[in-house]
């Protein structure tokens, strides 16, 4: 298989800055949430600095010490060059910049979306990727390390091994019609095993809302940062999540009106069986994943796009498409082609629904990527 020693150069004209912030707060369940967040943003120059380290070696070591499942041990390398630079000045080309959030998959790391976040930042967005307590692994700026908790790992494994879930998975068909997909999705989402999994998603969504509050304080100048009076928050924010991060994305859209649209990348719909997101939502996925998220569009009173992508694997939607060293977890598409698909749909969607550009998702053409459904419930 082809290997890479450098990520693709970002698509936009801005140099990409990256800053790390440590945050903590008390969540609604009274737990203390100690988080970190990487912020990717547009800059005018690399200021002569060397590129940011992709992932901290200590975090990579934690992943291999306790992978979520055995099959994910030693599947990727961190010996790859990024195109972002730590702690640059924010670009002066625009007075304010729109804001997006990225949510990595469960058991992953906030750096796993570096390619997508860098692409978006290079075109003028500020993009925030959070390290979520218990469900992701990360190193805080203060040096402390956080691995996925045994509780979270056990819940994920229990879900995948649940006999009722396995029975339903065996009945999932490729390219089901809408009615069949909705019925299957409802059957999956009402499994008792999902209640604890949903609780972790809800805490991740609470993390996002807290960090959004923090950005408002940065913009207002309540805290010292380069973002004072520089964030375009009045037009609303967007959010995109991969895998387990997808339900978090949808929950944030449902519960926080500051977020005006969202994207799920090969994700599910845990905790969303009866939810009207009331926001435009895009799902980019590999079959038979439609069976896992069909209720989102069936309940959403705004447009929901379902794009099916063939010849790809689940981890192809994040940086592992470039960092992979185990071809068994990769799909058949070229890594650059997959990057162009994910970045293309994501940027087009946010440009349309946040920046109000006259763009059409249906106008994007990639081989083997098909719009299989577009739903909108009229009020």
TrEMBL record:
PANTHER family attached to this UniProt entry: PLATELET-ACTIVATING FACTOR ACETYLHYDROLASE
Pfam families: PAF-AH_p_II
Gene3D superfamilies reported for this sequence: alpha/beta hydrolase
Record bears the keyword Secreted: no
Signal sequence region: none
Keywords for the protein's UniProt record, in alphabetical order: Hydrolase, Lipid degradation, Lipid metabolism
InterPro entries tied to this protein: AB_hydrolase_fold
Annotated protein name in UniProt: Choline esterase
Highest taxon of source: Bacteria
Source species: Lacrimispora defluvii
């Amino acid at each position: 298989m082809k290997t890479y020693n450098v990520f693709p150069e970002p698509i936009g004209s801005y140099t990409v800055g990256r800053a790390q912030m440590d945050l903590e707060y008390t969540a609604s369940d009274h737990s203390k949430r100690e988080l970190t967040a990487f912020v990717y943003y547009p800059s005018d120059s690399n200021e002569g600095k060397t590129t940011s380290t992709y992932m901290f070696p200590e975090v990579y070591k934690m992943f291999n010490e306790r992978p979520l499942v055995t099959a994910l041990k030693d599947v990727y390398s961190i010996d790859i060059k990024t195109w972002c630079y730590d702690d640059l000045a924010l670009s002066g080309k625009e007075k304010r910049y729109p804001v997006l959030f990225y949510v990595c998959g469960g058991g992953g790391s906030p750096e796993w979306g570096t390619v997508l976040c860098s692409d978006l930042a290079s075109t003028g967005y500020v993009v925030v990727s959070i390290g979520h307590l218990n469900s992701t692994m990360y190193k805080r700026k203060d040096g402390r390390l956080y691995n996925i908790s045994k509780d979270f790992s056990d819940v994920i494994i229990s879900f995948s091994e649940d006999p009722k879930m396995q029975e339903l998975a065996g009945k999932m068909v490729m390219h089901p019609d809408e009615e069949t997909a909705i019925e299957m999705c409802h059957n999956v989402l009402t499994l008792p095993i999902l209640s604890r999994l949903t609780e972790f998603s809800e805490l991740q969504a609470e993390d996002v809302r807290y960090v959004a509050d923090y950005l408002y304080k940065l913009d207002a100048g309540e805290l010292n940062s380069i973002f004072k009076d520089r964030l375009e928050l009045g037009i609303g924010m967007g959010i995109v999540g991969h895998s387990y991060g997808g339900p978090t994305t949808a929950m944030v859209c449902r519960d926080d009106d500051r977020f005006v649209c969202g994207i799920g990348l090969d994700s599910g719909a845990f905790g969303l069986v009866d939810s009207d997101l009331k926001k435009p939502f895009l799902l980019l996925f590999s079959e038979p994943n439609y069976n896992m998220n069909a209720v989102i569009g069936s309940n959403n009173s705004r447009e929901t796009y379902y794009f099916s992508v063939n010849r790809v694997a689940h981890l192809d939607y994040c940086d592992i498409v470039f960092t992979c060293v185990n071809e068994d977890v990769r799909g058949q598409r070229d890594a650059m082609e997959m990057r162009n698909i994910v970045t293309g749909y994501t940027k087009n969607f946010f440009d349309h629904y946040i920046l109000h550009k006259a763009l059409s998702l249906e106008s994007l053409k990639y081989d083997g990527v098909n719009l299989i459904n577009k739903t909108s419930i009229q009020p």
